[in-house]
């Protein structure tokens, strides 16, 4: 029997924290499941509309995004946390 690890997702802007469900395909889906409204367009890493600042931690991309991603930023639609992370939407 394998044990699925969960990661904590902290939101710096409003001090919310929740568990990342290991069954979620992306951070965007997980945020939506937790009733958070996040801007997005393509859900594929093409447009960059779901861009957020990664304050702490690291992520793994499901596929390499085509949109430009600056150092310290992530595209929520195509990544998952690699352990606990802190995000900001400012």
UniProtKB/TrEMBL annotation:
The keyword DNA-binding does not apply. This is Ferredoxin. InterPro entries: 2Fe-2S_ferredoxin-like_sf, 2Fe-2S_ferredoxin-type, 2Fe2S_fd_BS, Beta-grasp_dom_sf. Pfam families: Fer2. Residues 7-90 form the 2Fe-2S ferredoxin-type domain. The keyword Membrane does not apply. One of its GO terms (molecular function) is 2 iron, 2 sulfur cluster binding. NCBIfam families: PRK10713.1. Keywords: Ubiquinone. It comes from Pseudoalteromonas porphyrae. Coiled coil: none annotated.
